[in-house]
Amino acid sequence: MKLRTKFIFFAVFVHGLLAVMAYFLLQENKLLFIGMELLVLLSVVLTVNLYNAFFKPLNLIRAGIESIRDKDFSTKFVQVGQPELDELVDVYNRMIEQLRQERVAQAEKHFLLEKIIQASPAGIILLDFDGRIESINPAAERYLYLSGQSWQGSELAALPNTWARELTQVQVGQPYTFRLNGIRTFRAHRAHFIDRGFQRAFIMIEELTEAIIKNERQAYEKVIRMMSHEVNNSTGAINSILDSVQFYTPQIDEEHREDFTYALQVAIDRNANLSRFMANFADVVRLPAPSKKPVQVQALLKRLERLMLPQLEQRHIQLTMKLPASPLCIYMDEQQLEQALLNILKNAMEAVKSDGNIWVELQEQPLCLTISDNGEGIPEHVRPKLFTPFFSTKETGQGIGLTMIREILLSHGFQFSLESGSNGLTNFKIFLTSEQSK
């Protein structure tokens, strides 16, 4: 039974007794009856005042409890002139103001944190209490190529490509560095935070590709320049000596003249090969900044098809092109990108060898060029080394082709990947989007 109900029952009972006493006094003495009636009226007035005095604070407390329950920290009470009640009102108002300020501060901090996460250049994957993906910030979406896709509630193992394998290996407090497709290098950190008393995890991803490529480029440019200088000086002097030696050919005995001429020609040819060898390396170093202008991609691909056709027919390789009907113009250095695409098609042709297929697909959304082949594929142990400067799987290869492709695409700001899928196809994807793309 509530306190209010008890009080009313008590007041009714007491005044009922007084009414009964007044009835008996009416029988005996009318003056006493009138006095009793006045006493009853005075008691009723006092009871009503006591009721208001006792239960008004309770009403305030109840209203305050409802405000707190509804998380409404904007409601405050006005003092009523009673010292005890005003003290209660003052305490309540201070408490509500403190709660309001703390909630505003918490909301502002949460809003700031959300803004920082969204604007962060580092990729952030926030996990829920069960270790599933709760949210992915824009930087992580770009790294994982997840734009426009929803991965909320998915396991890390469900992420595409090699991201699933790499991110599941990240341990708390142990930075983990890995390389994707031989070109993009990332460092991942896993850490915990407390949310509503329970532990949750997040993964932060930083891309190190640009810094590593810059350091690599500075290192091999310095080495190649030094080598070119020494080799060119040597070959120049040797060529001069060989030219002088050729002058004495008629003076050699006819019996030894053929051997002499042959040995001299071998030396000249080897010297020329060495010069060409170093020139190939120097071409990578001397690659100029791209001179960009609008280029129709379909026309460029058709020209490459005609250029490659004799070699494709000789090897019995079928080249299939899937191009949009409407012309696509991209800002690029036509000569450089033509060289890069030619190298990619030659690599695909060498992977197929003969009696195979190469597919070239240009799609508009997202703007992407994919060159696929059903050749031998890329071995697992080779994939991390792809695009490493001057790395080659061929016995006589110099590793210049992929290095030049990398430099050209990076200078254009085009993201790219090379990987062999489970369907037996090797795909070279180039995302033809940059700040100046059309």
Description:
- It is rod-shaped and about 170 Å long.
- The strands form three sheets. Strands 2-1-5-4-3 form a five-stranded antiparallel β-sheet. Strands 7-9-10-12-11 form a five-stranded mixed β-sheet, with helices on one face. A two-stranded antiparallel ribbon has the order 6-8.
- The longest helix has 40 residues, at 30-69.
- It has four domains: 3-104, no CATH class; 118-211, PAS domain (Beta-Lactamase); 212-286, Helix Hairpins; 293-431, Histidine kinase-like ATPase, C-terminal domain (Heat Shock Protein 90, 2-Layer Sandwich).
- A hairpin with a 5-residue loop joins strand 11 (415-420) and strand 12 (426-431).
- It is built from ten helices and twelve strands.
- With 438 residues, the chain is of the alpha+beta class.
- The mean pLDDT is 82.
- It starts with a helix and ends in a 7-residue tail after the last strand.
- It holds the Pfam family HATPase_c.
- Its main location: membrane.
- Keywords: ATP-binding, Kinase, Membrane, Nucleotide-binding, Phosphoprotein, Transferase, Transmembrane, Transmembrane helix, Two-component regulatory system.
- Residues 226-436 form the Histidine kinase domain.
- GO terms for molecular function: ATP binding; protein histidine kinase activity.
